[in-house]
């Protein structure tokens, strides 16, 4: 394949997917990232920046490296070469740092991973009280506010088994927000939901984007990517093939691989 990575010209620099204003420190700065699983080269020299308040959406076929890239950002996976910086600070491997990192980098997964023995309120309070040492009364007030923010104020005392998939995912988003992270990572947050429940989760994410939450999102929801993203990165075979504003990627993609992928799904 002869395609080489390219990025859009609006708010971007060169071929690395740089976005934002000159002089501003990226919230996420990924430099020459490589990752192998055994003999499989999963990430191949990825360069990517996410600036404050930006929404960067990663698209591409399953197995293209999108979720692995996301998991490397908060050290759920360790990269083999290259560097990741969060707000200018290199990500490293010691346990104390990783715990602090995951408080700053919230992550929402395909599956909800809620504590089944805790109410929605208890799930959202757990991080602030146990990790940040927040007093229970303060954590309760914050958690109730976050549940209201995701449209679940009336479900504070409900246990996960009584919630729909969309409601569980919204509790998971509230739980991640409770740590007051610098950036939110979303790894295909709607892929495990029934189609009729997808919209309620995407609505919460649209709201977060509108509030200026810095987000890095892996999704197959192309309508969401077109509407909400500041930048869209198309990944294939472990590399960013093309990156640019949604209008460029969806309407005037420069690379044949991008055109072929979009032609298959749109």
TrEMBL record:
| PROSITE patterns xref list | ABC_TRANSPORTER_1 (PS00211), ABC_TRANSPORTER_2 (PS50893)
User: Known Pfam families for this protein?
Assistant: ABC_tran (PF00005)
**UniProtKB keywords:** ATP-binding, Cell membrane, Membrane, Nucleotide-binding, Transport
Does the entry feature the keyword Transport, yes or no?
yes
The protein's name: Amino acid ABC transporter ATP-binding protein
Topology class, membrane? Peripheral membrane protein
Q: Where is this region: Disordered?
A: 1-24
List, alphabetically, the CDD domains matched.
ABC_HisP_GlnQ
Residue ranges annotated for the ABC transporter domain, each copy included: 28-262
Please state where this protein is localized: Cell membrane
Q: Name one GO molecular function term.
A: ATP binding
- Species this chain originates from: Nitratidesulfovibrio liaohensis
User: Its family?
Assistant: Belongs to the ABC transporter superfamily.
InterPro entries reported in the protein's UniProt record: AAA+_ATPase, ABC_ATPase_HisP-typ, ABC_transporter-like_ATP-bd, ABC_transporter-like_CS, MetN_ABC_transporter-like, P-loop_NTPase
């Amino acid at each position: 394949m002869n395609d080489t990575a390219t990025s859009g010209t609006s708010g971007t620099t060169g071929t690395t997917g740089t976005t934002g204003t000159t002089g501003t420190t990226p919230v996420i700065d990924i430099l020459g990232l490589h990752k192998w699983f055994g003999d499989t080269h999963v990430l191949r020299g990825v360069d990517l920046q996410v600036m404050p308040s930006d929404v960067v959406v990663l698209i591409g076929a399953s197995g293209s490296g999108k979720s692995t890239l996301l998991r490397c950002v908060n050290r759920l996976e360790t990269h083999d070469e290259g560097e990741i910086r969060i707000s200018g600070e290199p990500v490293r491997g010691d346990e104390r740092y990783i715990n602090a990192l995951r408080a700053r980098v919230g992550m929402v997964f395909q599956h909800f991973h809620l504590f089944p023995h805790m109410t929605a309120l208890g799930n959202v309070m757990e991080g602030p009280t146990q990790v940040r040492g927040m007093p229970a009364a303060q954590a309760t007030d914050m958690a109730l506010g976050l549940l209201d923010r995701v449209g679940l104020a009336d479900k504070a005392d409900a246990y996960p088994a009584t919630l729909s998939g969309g409601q569980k995912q919204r509790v998971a988003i509230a739980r991640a927000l409770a740590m007051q992270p610098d950036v939110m990572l979303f790894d295909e947050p709607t892929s495990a939901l029934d189609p009729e429940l997808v919209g309620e989760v995407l609505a919460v994410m649209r709201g977060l984007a509108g509030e200026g939450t810095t987000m890095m999102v892996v999704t197959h929801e192309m309508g969401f990517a077109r509407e909400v993203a500041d930048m869209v990165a198309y990944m294939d075979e472990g590399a960013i093939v093309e990156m640019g504003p949604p209008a460029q990627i969806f309407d005037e993609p420069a690379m044949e691989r991008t055109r072929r992928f979009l032609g298959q799904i749109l």
